[in-house]
Write a structure and sequence with these properties.
- About 30% of the residues lie in helices and about 30% in strands.
- It is of the alpha+beta class.
- The protein has two domains: about 5-105, OB fold (Dihydrolipoamide Acetyltransferase, E2P); about 135-420, Bira Bifunctional Protein, Domain 2 (BirA Bifunctional Protein, domain 2).
- An eight-stranded mixed beta sheet has the order 6-10-11-18-17-16-13-12, sandwiched between helices. It has a five-stranded mixed barrel with strand order 1-2-3-5-4. The protein has a three-stranded antiparallel beta sheet with strand order 7-9-8, with no helix packed on it.
- It is elongated.
- It binds adenosine-5'-triphosphate and magnesium ion.
- The site of adenosine-5'-triphosphate has 14 residues, from strand 11, strand 17, strand 18 and helix 13.
């Protein structure tokens, strides 16, 4: 097979329209369905853009081609040359009458997982065979939508004059305290996989004003929940000359922008997943106000953290709304969050569709205060010397946030497990594929 020639001639199935009726075309894809009626052979071929039926007619189709169509197995990779024809019977309204048919990658049988649209295979097994699970339209739809989130995040941030940064994945010491880290051997030194780009993005905001990143974080927590991974991706943002309200406003707009893009660009994918998505509104509540609302509704809230139950309640009370819970109790936020009065802070969480999607806030940019805050949190300022020093030479007030990519994908698509929203999840038990 001349793959260079094929790439010049190949047509995406999704691009085939009435204009192509009667014309010759080359298509490639995987064999989704086979129906062999003896004198008629129907094969449904699927590529990333769509699917089409290839119809073999014993009395008309080239004998070799007809024979080859009878030998192929489901999920095999094939290339078909043929004539496009309008058809009332074929789903999609068109079919291809093949003049050549070639198998480029035969799929062994039986398949290890059910690859149909309504796969009965359980998630762990599907993840074991993720490469094959990705033949499924529903799985593809999730990652096409995630692709739109990634692209539109960058598009939005570029318009905001934010600069994209790539941060180190290996760090010499804990950046935040609190969360558990994965140790790595780094020559003679001890190092860790980064749990956040917090300190780096702050240093950047204090020089290039607005910075954003799509950053991978590693957290060694031994949780095993439907909303936590041990390796996750975050949309990070940090802005100079800003407080938490400035960056909450940016967060509201970027999430609205991304969701609008998904609605526009992924309508077919949303339909396939049975998701009706709306561009969300925004609502601002203080932590104290939220606690009062929860008390009225007899829902438990912690002294310095919301409960999962209260996050769900917020969605019930304010559907299709990003709820910014701000003025968060100081004790519930990390050392780098700016205090507000004695017990409150400039920290916030954003809750959307019943789950935390973002944490953020104004940061401490005053070295003396930072030292004090570190001590209060039981951390040693000596371990953070370089970080503290970075605020000694013209550091403006600044604020930012981290928005979980998989978390966002999960909530907007109503997935019941965050692992559905990662190509290759890393969790307590899973390190392959
Ligand atoms: P949670 O309270 O849900 O455990 P967190 O407060 O520990 O999250 P942050 O450090 O605030 O998380 O991280 C910012 C965002 O990154 C979260 O709001 C969430 O969207 C996402 N995130 C955090 N931890 C994880 C994880 N373990 N797996 C997947 N996404 C995560
Ligand atoms: Mg948080």
């Amino acid at each position: 097979m001349d793959l260079q020639k094929l790439n010049k001639e190949r047509k995406y199935i999704g691009d085939i329209t009435a204009k192509d009726d009667g014309k010759k075309a080359a298509i490639v894809g995987w064999l989704y369905d086979i129906r062999d009626l003896g004198k008629l052979r129907f094969l449904v071929i699927r590529d990333i853009s769509g699917e089409i039926q290839v119809t073999g007619i014993k009395a008309e189709t080239d004998t070799k081609v007809f024979e080859a169509m009878g030998k192929v197995t489901r999920e095999s990779a094939v290339v078909v040359y043929g004539t496009i024809k309008k058809s009332d019977k074929a789903s999609g309204g068109r079919e291809i009458l093949p003049s050549s048919f070639e198998v480029l990658g035969l799929a062994e049988q039986p398949l290890p997982i059910d690859t149909s649209d309504f796969s009965k295979t359980e998630l762990p097994k599907r993840l074991d065979y993720r490469f094959l699970d990705l033949h499924r339209r529903k799985t593809q739809a999730i990652f096409k939508i995630q692709n739109t989130l990634l692209q539109s995040y960058r598009e939005f941030m570029a318009k905001e004059r934010a600069i994209e940064a790539i941060f180190p994945a290996v760090i010499g010491s804990s950046s935040e305290g609190g969360t558990e880290l994965f140790p790595v051997k780094y020559f003679e030194k001890k190092a860790f996989l980064s749990q956040s780009c917090q300190l780096y993005k702050q240093m950047l905001a204090c020089s290039i004003e607005k910075v954003f990143a799509v950053f991978t974080v590693w957290r060694a927590e031994k949780h095993n929940t439907i909303r936590h991974l041990n390796e996750a991706r975050q949309f990070d943002y940090e802005q100079a000359f800003a407080d938490e309200f400035v960056v909450m406003e940016v967060l509201g707009r970027v999430v609205q922008f991304m969701i609008k893009k998904v609605i526009e660009d992924n309508s077919k994918d949303l339909e396939l997943l049975g998701v009706k998505l709306k561009v969300p509104g925004v609502k601002y509540l203080t932590f104290a106000e939220t606690a009062v609302i929860m008390k009225k509704n007899k829902v438990h809230v912690g002294a310095d953290d919301l409960s999962g139950e209260s996050e769900k309640k917020l969605d019930e009370l304010y559907p299709d709304t990003i709820v910014f819970v701000h003025d968060w109790p100081l004790s519930g936020k990390p050392f780098y969050i700016m205090p507000k009065g004695k017990d409150s802070s400039c920290g916030f969480d954003a809750i959307y569709k019943g789950m935390e999607i973002t944490s953020g806030g104004q940061r401490v940019h005053i070295p003396e205060l930072l030292i004090e805050r570190l001590k209060v949190k039981g951390l040693n300022p000596k371990d953070f010397e370089k970080y503290i020093d970075s605020f000694r030479y013209g550091a403006p007030p600044h604020a930012g946030w981290g928005l979980g990519l998989e978390r966002l994908t999960m909530v907007i698509l109503g997935l019941d497990n965050i692992r559905e929203a990662v190509l290759f999840p890393r969790d307590r038990d899973r390190l392959t594929p």
